[in-house]
Amino acid sequence: MSVSNEFSNVYLDKGSRENIIYKTERLWKTITVDANTLFEQHKFKEALNNYKNALRQAEILNNYKSECIQGKIPFIQLYIISCNNIAYTYIELKLLEKAGDMFKRTIYYLLYLLDYDCAGIERELKRAVATYLDYSVKYEKDDDSQNKILSDIKEHFSQKQLSQNII
User: Fold this and answer.
1) pLDDT of residue 89
2) Overall pTM > 0.70
3) Which of 39, 45, 85, 129 has its CA 20 to 30 A from that of 94?
């Protein structure tokens, strides 16, 4: 089953949107379990394809943030898990730059969500930064990427603070 990103909240009634999010969450779980099995069997390319498919399902859930919150679907965590699974698979495949990009993708996703005031984002952001820094220390040759990420985070928080002070 595949749910298209072409769905729009405008065209779907509430029941249809809820049906989509629950089916999409179940599909994400099934795909991720299958990918985990492939990863454990060292079938990294096949696992990567499944993890990418799971990420697509997590992206669909992000189109229905309010419904996911009401339905207690952890759409943020599903997205983060998907990105991390892909990153760790890239590490196994020795595609280290792509791994770093996936860890950074998680950080920028969380920075984006800070503007929506979703619960627990700052805690998730701290974890994502720690995960990225751990990766960076092990695999990146220069500090430019680390400095860029940390600078972007500081800039985001200072802009957010400025906008809160204005209001």
Assistant:
1) 98
2) yes
3) 129
